[in-house]
Write a structure and sequence with these properties.
single chain; Rossmann fold; eight-stranded mixed sheet; two-stranded antiparallel ribbon; 33% helix; binds 5-O-phosphono-beta-D-ribofuranosylamine
Length: 213
């Protein structure tokens, strides 16, 4: 049986949709078990449901503490036999306890070339610094925000005419290509976290997780 993926979102869900689309190919090595949003109005929930993926909301506002919210997330993930948790625009900070529970099985995508531009407004900050390369990073999640061992990076050239919106759109296109590859590598055992080192072998080792557009 293929490893089962739970995807956590908070909004639009284009990365989630890209992974769901990739997983429709019978040769894809993972099954998308569920999509969970912490916000009831997340657009991505409709997209997931329209693709036949169990889509549900665990609204953080309904829980008195972060721990209780995460307990419910874990219950939902465990009910669906999830093996890996993929954060795709999920806008809640997770506790050490949750992160420890999914050690080596929890990944995130961030819209910058980490360790540059942790946090929010990455495209604006990159433009105002005048960097020539910007991009995205997929990494294992550790308690420190937007840190954690790096699995994959995609770079885009910054154009003189770029606005935060045009730059974000080009970065997002790279995110949408890179993330399904990372999920495939995790599910097939070709991407593994060993301590704080990422070990990549097989097809993914040949540069498929690095791109420059
Ligand atoms: C992406 O830019 C991702 O890097 C960041 O949040 C955004 C989510 O976009 N973590 P989407 O919901 O996947 O379209």
């Amino acid at each position: 049986m293929k490893p089962r993926i739970g995807i956590l979102i908070s909004g639009r869900g284009s990365n989630m949709a890209a992974i769901v689309a990739a997983a429709q190919d019978p040769s894809y090595p993972a099954t998308i078990a569920c999509v969970i949003s912490n916000r009831p109005d997340a657009k991505g929930l409709e997209t997931a449901a329209a693709n036949g993926i169990p889509a549900l909301c665990v609204d953080h506002k309904h829980f008195p503490s972060r721990e209780e919210f995460e307990d419910e997330l874990n219950r939902q993930l465990d009910d669906r036999d999830v093996d890996f948790v993929v954060l795709a625009g999920f806008m809640r900070v997770l506790t050490e306890r949750f992160i420890g529970r999914w050690d080596g099985k929890l990944v995130n995508i961030h819209p910058s070339l980490l360790p540059s531009y942790r946090g929010l407004h990455t495209h604006e900050r990159a433009l105002s610094d005048g960097v020539k390369l910007h991009g995205c990073t997929v990494h294992f999640v550790v308690p420190e925000l937007d840190a954690g061992p790096i699995i994959a990076q995609g770079a885009v050239r910054v154009r003189p005419s770029d606005t935060p919106e045009t730059l974000a759109a080009r970065v997002l296109a790279v995110e949408n290509t890179l993330y399904p590859r990372v999920v495939a590598g995790l599910a097939s055992g070709h991407i593994v976290l060993a301590g704080d080192q990422v070990i990549i072998d097989g097809p993914a080792a040949e540069g498929a997780l690095i791109s420059l557009a």
